[in-house]
Design a protein that fits this description.
The structure is a homodimer. Chain A contains 6 helices and no strands. Chain A is mainly α and about 230 residues long. Chains A and B meet through helix 2, helix 3, helix 5 and helix 6 of A and helix 2, helix 3, helix 5 and helix 6 of B.
């Protein structure tokens, strides 16, 4: 290969990597918006918005395939070594997490449509709070990935406790609602499912953040306990 | 590279691919056993078994890292093209699903320990049935992957409906338990969570099966609806 060809290949490689990063940021942004819209459709009792959001999942899925293809092309055409290889294969795993986050947003919409048909059990306070934290975790986990920012990834992992605590709080509150008035059981379990979907979204963001630390540090941090002093 | 070197590299490549397949089958088998043990610990009210199973998750996590390293080595050392590239990158994604299946088995154990401390609400009939189907889905999805067997992958995807129907059945039954006797609400919601964990395990197996079809056919089957006549 002469110098001009090599430079061209190199430029193409950098361009492909840049597009992969841009694609993942865009997909992350879309996943975030799907979470926000799903929770809005519940809080504002807007079933039309829920249906539009469910339809919007097709775009998340399209981007999942597109990002994966970018990763495969990078691997096939440029045979990257070491650091870049780890970056691209982590990208491949992250698309799956983002796609599942989208699925959970759809699940929230489905419960919203059901819940909106019944009288409102109570004003939603902790659910939007959970959603806000989960969204910020998704955003920051992707930012941590593209910037290879271990500190930010650690912050995401810490924030998972906030979501878990809110989930427990919602669970306890719903248990007392159900015990006081069995007529609320159907609606309460559906709200409980919504809180579980949000918890799972936060888990996906946590998984992404763990993979970022693993990618940068090369350590098996992803299965370590916080108490072991690694995170 | 002379012929002897090339043959050596080729043999090493085949050997590495074989080890990846073997590693994934082993990891799948372990994930299956974790599901079975988790549900046993609930059905037989055996909290000691639940604790042993929770500890066993470390082995699933170790294998996750080991299989990923095998995939990365294959990509770095042999620069596989086309079909093999898709096989290895699918392997990378599958390890994540198996690892999450292990996490769900741990969640079942945690609920089992809590439930075993209270009087049994009812004999568990549908939960073990769900677990059995979910386990068979995990096994067959991995078999479909290593054999590149699209037919088997389709069967796995079809079986997901069985799990979903059982989950709905359990949900309806638990709703009526709770409505009849509010004292059962705490236990009922925990059993409901167990059924949700099993549903999620089946979802992971379905995702694996979808990825197998995508890998073999190269079609965007993974986000297609059954009604679109592709599956």
């Amino acid at each position: 290969m002469d110098t001009t060809q090599a430079q061209h290949t190199n430029r193409q490689y950098e361009e492909d990597l840049r597009e992969l990063r841009a694609g993942l940021i865009k997909m992350g942004g879309l996943a975030e918006r799907q979470i926000a819209d799903a929770v809005d459709s519940l809080v504002n009792r807007d079933s039309e918005k829920a249906r539009v959001t469910i339809a919007g999942d097709a775009e998340v899925n399209r981007m999942d395939i597109e990002c994966d293809e970018r990763c495969l092309n990078l691997l096939a055409l440029h045979q990257p070594a070491a650091g870049d290889l780890r970056f691209i294969t982590t990208g491949l795993k992250i698309t799956t997490d983002l796609e599942r986050i989208g699925d959970n947003a759809v699940n929230i919409c489905e419960r919203a449509v059901e819940l909106n048909e019944e009288p409102q059990l109570k004003p939603y306070i902790d659910i939007p709070r959970m959603a806000e934290v989960a969204q910020s975790m998704v955003k920051d986990s992707i930012d941590a990935f593209v910037r290879k920012d271990v500190e930010l990834a650690r912050e995401v992992i810490d924030r998972d406790d906030v979501v878990d605590n809110l989930q427990h709080q919602i669970y306890r509150e719903l248990l007392s609602y159900m015990a006081e008035d069995p007529h609320t059981i159907g609606r309460s379990t559906k709200i409980l499912f919504v809180s579980k979907y949000l918890e799972r979204i936060a888990d996906h963001a946590t998984n992404i953040a763990e993979m970022v630390i693993f990618m940068v540090k090369g350590k098996n941090i992803k299965h370590m306990d916080k108490n072991q002093g690694i995170l």
